[in-house]
Amino acid sequence: MAQAFDATSQQALLTTRAEEALALAKQLGADAAEVGASVDQGIGISVRLGEVETVELSRDQGIAVTLYVGQRKGSASSSDASSASIKATVEKALAIARYTGEDPAAGLADAALMATHLPDLQVHYPWPLNTDEAIALALSCEQAGRDVVGIHQSEGASLSSGEGVRVYANSHGFLGTQKGSSHSLSCMLIAQDENGMQRDYDYTSARNPIELRDPGSVGREAAARTLRRLGAKRPPTGTFPVLFDPTLASGLIGHLMSALAGGALYRQASFLCDRLGTPLFPSWFSLEERPMEVGATASSPFDGEGVQTRDNRFVDQGSIASYMLSSYSARRLGMQTTGNAGGARNIRLISPQTSRNALLKEMGTGIWVTELMGQGVNGVTGDYSRGAAGFWVENGEVQYPIEEFTIAGNLTTMFAGLVGIADDIDTRGSIHTGSWLIDAMTVAGS
């Protein structure tokens, strides 16, 4: 990197700036205030066909101030953390607060809920990687894929590595800081036969660089995923069971969490409004978040309002057990925050698991989906319709690749029709899940 990143000194500086902003807000007459500040630095490399395409060294910082005058709220932000900029930002937020309408739900989270248990969750692992080393890793990843027989072309390989610091403070006296890191390596390749070209990719991602997969294995897996798509056909139209690959099953959980989010609920923009305590999944399925999991992708001891995070079970034995609430959305709904300002952290399933092959056998004849396209999900009704690609399955065996078809259903019936979950858990993101088998969806193909 162009300049060493000293996370500890940045943490101290942001803490000072946040305290400065809070003191100034109080001095200027704000009744309450909260400040979020962050700084991130990273390197990004992309290569293609053995040549370097881009080298990007980035450094971003920002400070955001939210002030309350009674129940009037004003927010302002700046990318400059100097004292002069902080003064201007606080003054701007205060001016906005004085002229906005009152909102009975506005205000800081309750003081009694502020985080007091602030352990080191081990999410900061710097990678002392110079530009030449980063380029070499990306090149070796791509070359490993290009060396596989049948690979025709490359879309390239990319490496990114970054670390940062965030600070949140408010006028309750809470101040929390966290250092973090994120590293990834990916490769996308192209293969061609008489039916045309196909492309696919693979990637590895981790907080700790020693947990990244070997660059060669990423390139070879990208090649294998690309080659298996050659000769794709369109599937027949009909109603079939559908197996969602783990990366796509995590998307289904994402749609669930969006529907459980307080913002969608109080706006009556969720298909799960007024469903608390009602069945949604089979009774063997439970889902929870574990924000204090050591070393995990989204771990944090406090949420975006300084509230102590905690394990939350959102689905318990098939029924909706909890919504996902910030203080504001909780007040709008007449409930209490679940410590989810800023979203859910580290979603984990609690359910029986079997092998993917066992689910394919149980499927019999149907579709294994490995790619989805488009954004055809209606959060208000739960209607689901996406373009897809994957594999046709007969008698529990994969027959051939398929493409240019759509799958459609409704999330409520899809969740109720969950047949099983595989043990091929994808741990690269904040949602950990294996493949999902849904009993029936409408397929529009040939």
UniProtKB/TrEMBL annotation:
Annotated Metalloprotease TldD/E C-terminal domain residues: 237-445
Keyword Protease tagged: yes
Residue span, Metalloprotease TldD/E N-terminal domain: 33-97
GO cellular component, one term: cytosol
Keyword Transferase appears in the UniProt entry: no
Keywords: Hydrolase, Metalloprotease, Protease
GO molecular function annotation: metallopeptidase activity
GO terms of biological process kind: proteolysis
Assigned protein family: Belongs to the peptidase U62 family.
PANTHER family per UniProt: METALLOPROTEASE PMBA
Protein name per its UniProtKB record: Metalloprotease PmbA
Highest classification ranks of the organism: Bacteria, Pseudomonadati, Pseudomonadota, Gammaproteobacteria, Oceanospirillales
